[in-house]
Amino acid sequence: MTTWLANTIGTPVECLKIGSEMEYMIWARQVMHAHGVTPILKDWTGDQPAAYVNDGRWAARCLMDTNTCIAHPGGSAEWPNPVAVCAECGTVYRPVFPANRELAEIVLLARPDVRQRHWFGDRDETPERLGHLIVENAENKWPKRRAIPSSGEVV
Ligand SMILES: [Zn+2]
Predict the structure, then answer these.
(1) For position 76, what pLDDT does the model report?
(2) Residues, beta carbon < 5 Å, ion ligand 1
(3) 42-43 and 91-93 as β-strands: parallel, antiparallel, unpaired?
(4) CA of 68 to the centre of ligand 1 (A)
(5) pLDDT of residue 155
(6) Which segments of the chain have a pLDDT < 70?
(7) Taking Cα atoms as reference points, which of 7, 121, 16, 129 lies closest to residue 71?
(8) What's the CA gap between 155 and 146, in Å, rounded?
(9) Ligand 1 mean position to 41 CA, how many Å?
(10) How far is the CA of 90 from the centre of ligand 1 (A)?
(11) What are the residue ranges of helices labelled H in the chain?
């Protein structure tokens, strides 16, 4: 189990140890340079991709090369806007996060194994609704309940 993502759905903060959008841009340029690609970032101006959860991480699919880009939902001084940067081609996206993102995170965090935390939402032609994840959790009895001994003490 990926314990470093046990209690959160990962963003560049956890997955790449990056503290701000500006640092994310610098990181992407460094990766591109290391791979022999001219490190120029460019804003995507078309329809923005939907953010989704893959292996416990928020992500967006690069529309140029299908690379998986770690995404941040924004909403703070360090991360003012949603962002995902493709370190393969340098495209900067402003992914569209689901309106019920926080509820989705609660549902996904009930799953004990990070590798079971996937939600493709509106990424594909057939949307995967949050209700589907809730049904899957119920079928698998996630979260697992702690046993309560006959003495009544919670262990
Ligand atoms: Zn790309």
Answers:
(1) 97
(2) 62, 64-65, 67, 86, 88-89, 91
(3) parallel
(4) 8
(5) 42
(6) 1-2, 145-155
(7) 16
(8) 7
(9) 10
(10) 6
(11) 12-15, 21-34, 101-109, 130-139
* Pairwise CA distance, residues 81 & 84, whole Å: 10
Domain layout of the chain by residue ranges: 12-93
Distance 63 CA to ligand 1 centre (A): 7
The packing angle between helices 101-109 and 130-139, to 10°, is 20
Q: Are 63 and 46 in contact (CB under 8 A)?
A: yes
State the number of CA atoms in the 13 A half-sphere of 5 facing the CB: 27
Give me the pLDDT at residue 145, please.
65
Does pTM top 0.70 for this prediction? yes
Taking the C-alpha atoms of residue 73 and residue 80, their distance in angstroms, rounded to an integer, is 9
What distance in angstroms lies between residue 137's CA and the mean position of ligand 1's atoms? 33
Alpha-carbon gap, residue 16 to 155, rounded angstroms: 36
* 105 vs 34: CA distance, rounded Å: 34
**Residue 99: its pLDDT value, please?**
92
Q: How far apart are CA 119 and CA 142, in angstroms?
A: 16
Q: Measure the CA–CA gap between 155 and 23, rounded to whole angstroms.
A: 43
